[in-house]
Amino acid sequence: MFTSPYITKPVSVSEIMLKVMLALLPGIGFYVWYYGPAILVSITLASVTALATEAAMLKLRDRPVAPFLKDNSALLTAWLLALSIPPLAPWWLVVVGTLFAISISKHLYGGLGNNPFNPAMIGYAVLIISFPVQMTHWLTPHPVGHPELSFIEQLGYIFSGVLPRGLTLDAVTMATPLDTLKTQLHLGLSVGEIRDMPIYGRLAGKGSEMVATGFAIGGLYLLWNRIISWHLPIVYLGTLYATAGLFHVIDPAHYVTPLFHLFSGAAMIGAFFILTDPVTSPTTPRGKIIFAAGAGILTYLIRAFGGFPDGMAFATLLMNICVPLIDAYTQPKVFGKKAKGAQK
Amino acid sequence: MRQLHRFHGGVHPPTNKTQSSETPIIASAMPSKLVIPLHQHVGNIARPVVSVGEHVLKGQVIGKADGRLSSAVHASTSGTIATIGYSKVAHPSGMDDLCVTLIPDGKDEWVANLGADYRELSHTDIRHRLRDAGVVGLGGAVFPSDMKLYGGKHQIKTLVLNGAECEPYITCDDRLMRERAAEILLGAEMMRDLLHAEEVVVGIEDNKPEALAAMQQAIVDGKHARMEAVAVPTVYPGGGAKQLIRVLTGIEVAAGVRSTEMGVQCFNVATAYSAYRAISYGEPMLSRVVTVTGNVERPQNYEVLLGTPVAELVAQAGLKSGTQGYIMGGPMMGFLLPSDQVGVVKATNCIIATAPTLFPAPAPTMPCIRCTRCAEVCPAELQPQELHWFAKAREFGKAQDYHLFDCIECGACSYVCPSNIPLVQYYRYAKSEIWARERDKTAADTARQRHEYRQFRLEREKQEKAEKLAQKERAALLAKQQADAAAATANTDEDAQARIQAAMARVQAQHDATQPRNTANLTPEQQAKIDEIEARRAHIQELAHPEADLDKHHEPPKE
Ligand code: SF4
Ligand code: SF4
Fold first, then answer.
1. Which of A334, B296, B408, B535 is the most exposed place for a label (fewest CB within 10 A)?
2. Residue B380's domain is classified under what CATH number?
């Protein structure tokens, strides 16, 4: 109790992070429903790795361990990373990704509040560059594919790489709907023909479109509770929609509908949970709009013309670089100095 | 209906007002002694005009206003002057100041005082009387009112009376408006007259419906024309002068600009009341209404004689055990008193007895996560997280670029920060550092100026000596060329003069070039603020210590 104010609003970093994690639950629920419980295993693995790495790094950096472990930021990173990599992947994939995210991209930059890049997206980028094969085998959702794996069978594959007799990895996994779209377009099929394939549902990929819907529901909860501001998700989704829409209108045979883009890949989770990471996004309202619009356009360009199946992660990282610049050039006018000719 | 405007941000802390707002103002008991500081206002300290042992009457001047910006101080009751000396005062600096200690004789005997109808007095006369009566702003700024009751060349349209009282716990203006509305309005009429203002608008937060009703009734009863009492939304800091002016008139008064330049002047309701009493009854400012609340049995508003020791005041409200200290003002902008023996001053609107149950220790500070909750609530529309960053990194120039000096230290940012960063503490620290640097630089400039002048003087003397020597030689050798030699001397003299002038001009130019931003053309309010900040500086430095990494510094509580 040094100087005023002597009262504070009872809100903490740990509570904010916890609410964001809560908001992930609908998406995770759909995930489990459509793909089986494997995702819970990777979330757990990532969480344990994140907490252990966080504790070790805090110790190394001579910081108090308990309050920082309780701030839930490492856990949130872990969850986001686990949700962006294939659930049926060898256990070490998620462990390596999390380790990298927490130790290098968070703590080497100074820990909570100081990292310029979104740690989960760094983890993802490292994995997709280093282990592209493992990163592209996604479980087939149950409305699409048989045979389904039981939980035990999923566990068996994650920890020992063994599948039930007679099954190959390709039999139980597939490329993501976005990935498939890209490859099939290259093979000369039109969007219409591709969309008739059994893996696609009403909006985008069967199963994955519902997971995206789950994340959107969680995102609305965050907006409603003012945990995040509207600028980032709305502008991001809006820009992605507009850019995709533009291409789609020009050439519908080669460019898929904008809604497909919104409900594919990491667009929804990115809009509400990844771009909105306060540490790595701009602080000014105008800056947020520029940042989100940039990420939206980049996501589309990478998806449509780039070499990677999804563009969300790289779009985020690229925009992360620009944050200090964006902030510096978008400082709002202060009280009393807005009107033209106002006194300096 | 008046069209209301919004200001950016603001917070809604628990108001905690009903504890003290529902009972009438009562007179505080006569204390055993009065400790009356001679510096209870912005501006020069009052000059003591009494001596130890002297008997004084109630209302007698004990400190005379000194200079243009100053205010008089009076004996709050009759009695004997016991001491005149330095002791602790109710000021955020926590430093000692000159106080007169008065032992009451219990008779409460008035000095002869003359009231007058203000309409029969000249404006200059009224201002002089206000100054002699020690009337200063009672909203907390304690700026001498006579200085503010002067529109100058500016046409004042609106006189805003501030009855918003947005800080939690404080209810003294609420009670005053409920009980003494008529006199507040008469004071407002007088102020309007002095300012030649067209309209009077009283702003009252809508959590005080009784006060609003009382004021509206009094406007009708008193047949006051072009005057209205308006409910404004309850949001902290809606009672800040700039914020209230914005809400009521839509005008934004930027930092460093006088509101009169934009056609508005603002006074606290209690100031209007005191100004009216001072003129109509000849009563100088001897007492004020103080809310006593917090860790006490009977939270209550008291009419308190200035100088009453805080301990004797709170005792009347039934101090509860566990009290650890006293906040003067509200919990958002107030400060901890250095001692319970300090006397109540004109700025004392509220005393809150603190206890850990009411004001728990803050949670450990975490790093800033750039969540911008602070920016969303900042009424000055600053980017508090950036200011914090620059203050912490000691990048004071950058902090100024980001409008550090527009910060009104309302504390809204600290209030919402999920990382519990004591943001305002950083801003006070940065401001004090900047003022200190500027003072040092001014001192250095003066020193350099002196040094350079001295160099030139020495050089000139040397030249003159050499010249004289040469002159003598020449005089001895060539007596007939004396006239030439004399002319040469004159030339040299002129030369040196010119060089000195050039040097002085250069020094001045350098000085002008290095003039810091933001600090030229200060208003008296700002100058006062600077002085205050200066005084606080040493104190704050101890507290803030930004070199010590805060996130490392605050050990987590042991479990
Ligand atoms: S509220 Fe606190 S944590 Fe959030 S941006 Fe402001 S200073 Fe940083
Ligand atoms: S204390 Fe200063 S920076 Fe913080 S909210 Fe108030 S005006 Fe803004």
1. B535
2. 1.10.1060
